[in-house]
Amino acid sequence: MAGDMSTVGCAALKKSAKQKLSSDKENNSSITNAVGNRKENGHLAMKPPNVPPLNMRGGLRVYKIVILGDGGVGKSAVTLQFVSHNFLDYHDPTIEDSYQQQAVIDNEAALLDILDTAGQVEFTAMRDQYMRCGEGFIICYSVIDRHSYEEASEYRKLIQRVRLTEDIPLVLIANKSDLESLRKVSTEEGRNLANQFGCPFFETSAALRLYIDEAFYALIREIRRKEKQRALGNGTSSEKLHSRRRSRWWRIRSIFALVFRRRRNLN
């Protein structure tokens, strides 16, 4: 997983931001109040509210990522470690949320728009909707929960059923690798499952921040690789390929934000 992959801003994005400094002042304040912008080791953590998508304000390529897995495997902890370098020791398993993180991967700027899904049955209908729009998927299980490992295959089947194809950018991660004394799933079992899926595999620890960045970067590489393959196969540019789902993704994302905001207010 070589390559200079430090998180940076995009020159075009900075230029656009300067031009809109006055009009964006309130939005920037909302972002800061919502989660607090943190800058650690060059990483900018940002969980924006309902503001215009950044790819529309600077031309930065947006990668729409969906994280799937049983409740309690650490999907939210993995996501928050990636975007903020913080370990989340508690998260409401019935809440889905979304995050954005800028990065440079193989010398190419990217904005990762990550949807962290709830592992509850009641969210199945909504899950199918955003799975149709996601460009890449991370399936997460816990090494201390064999059932979550067995369910990983079911999540892959679900993706294939919704997308009607097996050619889907995918990464398999086995979280909580730091809890070795409680391990129920071996590393070899995880590798074998990833080989069946034909995808990269990482044993991660959200608590220790092990292989978190590597897993997300590997997924972006998978998306780019498959986009190039499809473009060569049908003569369509990768920009046209990913833009077909862009507008639907933002519409669904806005609906989810409203639903989850209302749910939090009720709680």
From TrEMBL:
SUPFAM superfamilies: P-loop containing nucleoside triphosphate hydrolases. Residues 16-50 are annotated as: Disordered. It is found in: Cell membrane; Endomembrane system. This is small monomeric GTPase. The lineage of its organism: Eukaryota, Metazoa, Ecdysozoa, Arthropoda, Hexapoda. InterPro entries: P-loop_NTPase, Small_GTP-bd, Small_GTPase, Small_GTPase_Ras-type. It is a lipid-anchor. Signal peptide: none annotated.
